[in-house]
Amino acid sequence: MGNTESVAVQKRLARFQPEERPEVEGVFDRLQAGAGGPSGAAGTTLTLEMLQGSVGRVAPDSMVRRVYQCMCNIGLGEAASLAPGTSPTSAASGVGVVREQLVIFLADTLRGTAEERAPLVLTMIQPGAGAAKCHQVAEFVEDLISSVVQILVQSGRLQGWQPERMGDMSSGVKLLAEQMCSELKATDNGECDLSCLEDWIFRTSQVSLYLEMLVSEGLNVSLGGRVVPTLLPPCRETHWNELSSLLDIPTLMFLAPQLPDGVGAPWRLLFSTGLHGESFTRMMAGLLNHGPTLLLIKDTKGHVFGGFASHGWEIKPQFQGDSRCFLFSVFPTLRVYSTTGYNEHFMYLNHNQQTMPNGLGMGGQHGYFGLWLDSDFGRGHSRARPKCTTYGSPQLSAEEDFSLDSVEVWAVGKPPVPDDDEGGVGKRSILDMDPEALAIIEMTGKTVHSQGLREPEDD
């Protein structure tokens, strides 16, 4: 590439492996050739129309214009940095993007640090300014998320999910953008300057991930050894023709990475009120013996929330689970609430007992759960004054005591291996048949002498 002789460009190219450099250097010629321009002609530039022909396939026009204005504002000196508040160089003053600017843009977006990406992001948000307003950052993030969703749809990376049978995509985009922007630490006057954006990009990994995905897909940059992010978990065994899911694609993009390592099985719908009716017994059948699950609830006021259970549910009067469990909200805000360490009241499921609460609960304590569904179905509560002790979550439902609109249960991990397949000891005991009796015995401090005496397994 004869034109890229500047020190800045050579430093950027050094970030790529020798076999990757021809791919990076060839993007400029491919974009021109794709637009019918003179491939390889010296002194030529990329126009907005050329970029729209490539990036416009996978991104809204507002995002394409952001990318173009960013490229145009890249300086060509040795530092080759974007100086917010200054005018672009003469080579970039409205006459198009030159080859060197494109190479610098590719290197900083695909292989740059948070410090190097922050000026690019600021220029995409607000060119020629030293800071941006928080609402401008949110608009940029919405464009970025919309681009990623469009890429997933058009490239066939939906992993079995069907957006037309899921929640409102545009609402999900806004909620995910708000969640990402909630990590911003704006200045006292409510602005986001370069240092604010650098800190945000460093702490919020989705910004860099989504930007890399946009640039790679939009400019068709295929680097050797690059792992294409899937972003969505696989979905299997789901009857989409009859389903209207509470999930949407941006919400999945947020929730899936929150699951702990080792929980990576394809998601499978186990229960939906829309498919299986309003039955606590039927919901329990979906929860039991299916390993880790994700519970989604919508109340009649429109709030959507739920919880992740790290273990398969068991019917018993004791709390269960571990610190990998969490509660979350989907609407009106997208948030995850992890365990606080205050207690171990992670999961609770009981049914048909006389003296213990009957229903499903997560966090808090009896009568005061962070999330509770009554076994009578149709009713529940989310009590947090001011926070749930187990998860630190606020009230998730619109009202403390809520009426149920719909519920979904998704299996998200591998189901447990049955005991008889593991050669385990049989569990058929009078103590297992009446767990409430066992709980009362344990609370009185009595020794359970028959705990180890169990009926032998059938041959």
From TrEMBL:
<dbReference type="GO" id="GO:0005634">
    <property type="term" value="C:nucleus"/>
</dbReference>
<dbReference type="GO" id="GO:0005764">
    <property type="term" value="C:lysosome"/>
</dbReference>
<feature type="domain" description="TLDc">
    <location>
        <begin position="245"/>
        <end position="413"/>
    </location>
</feature>
<keyword id="KW-0963">Cytoplasm</keyword>
<keyword id="KW-0458">Lysosome</keyword>
<dbReference type="Pfam" id="PF07534">
    <property type="entry name" value="TLD"/>
</dbReference>
<dbReference type="GO" id="GO:0031929">
    <property type="term" value="P:TOR signaling"/>
</dbReference>
<dbReference type="GO" id="GO:0016020">
    <property type="term" value="C:membrane"/>
</dbReference>
<protein>
    <recommendedName>
        <fullName>MTOR-associated protein MEAK7</fullName>
    </recommendedName>
</protein>
<dbReference type="InterPro" id="IPR006571">
    <property type="entry name" value="TLDc_dom"/>
</dbReference>
<dbReference type="GO" id="GO:0006979">
    <property type="term" value="P:response to oxidative stress"/>
</dbReference>
<keyword id="KW-0472">Membrane</keyword>
